[in-house]
Amino acid sequence: MTATGTARPVPASSSIRLPGIVLGVGLGGFVDGILLHQLLRWHHMLSSTNHDHIGVKYYDPHTVSGLEMNTVWDGVFHAVCWVAVIVGLGILYSRVVDNRRAVWASRVLWGWILAGWGLFNLVEGILDHQILGIHHVRGGPHQAWWDAGFLVLGGLLLAGGHLWQRSGRPVDTASSAGAARARDTA
After folding, report:
1. Could you give the angle at which helices 107-124 and 143-167 cross, rounded to 10 degrees?
2. Over pLDDT 90: what percentage of the chain?
3. Nearest Cα to 19, choosing from 102, 111, 98?
4. Are 35 and 126 within 8 A, CB to CB?
5. End-to-end distance of the chain based on CA atoms, in angstroms?
6. How far is residue 12 from each of residues 35, 67, 95, 141, 172, measured CA to CA in Å?
7. Which of 2, 61, 87, 162 is deepest in the core (most CB within 10 A)?
8. Alpha carbon of 86 to those of 23, 33, 110, 137: distances in Å?
């Protein structure tokens, strides 16, 4: 309720689409960077620039100086992912004013987050792996298959997230607003 006693408008499920997708892009980027760049060390941001399509200098990730440069660009990548998560949280916070716990527990939000992760994979896979060629999921003789699998995973995450959010109930932040007010005044 507002100060005048009128009920706040209930955000529609579509109102959390943008923050969910932005959060998914950032979180999907973190999964990519942490798993593929750091833990598995399959690639770094510039690890395939000796075969890229835009003429970026090659920084061999198997040398100290090359690994240093790739690590810097991995850090830039992680910074962009961090900004996406902060922006997504900010948008979500601005759109959902009541019953935030129900929103975080909703299939709608998590479906949009999965869809955002899939969108990240598709854009990153097409832009970095195919168009720019600055790195591949896993370089070597089968890199086209790894890159294709990354795109397929992105498509499945996007479609699955879209279906999952559709299976959830619309986010109703007013349903427990009365309970929250009662709790706050007690």
Report:
1. 160
2. 75
3. 111
4. no
5. 16
6. 34, 46, 10, 48, 8
7. 61
8. 8, 17, 16, 26
Going 28 to 158 to 134 to 138, the CA torsion angle's sign is positive
- Closest by CA to 23, choosing from 108, 93, 112, is 112
At residue 113, what is the residue type?
I
pTM of the model: 0.83
Cβ neighbours, 10 Å, residue 93: 11
82-95 per-position pLDDT tens digit: 999 999 999 999 99
DSSP string, the chain: --TTSPPPPPPPGGGGHHHHHHHHHHHHHHHIIIIIIIIS----TTTTGGG-SS-PPP--TTSHHHHHHHHHHHHHHHHHHHHHHHHHHHHHHHH--S-HHHHHT-HHHHHHHHHHHHHHHHHHIIIIIIII-S--SS-STTHHHHHHHHHHHHHHHHHHHHHHHHHSPPP-SSTTHHHHHHHHH-
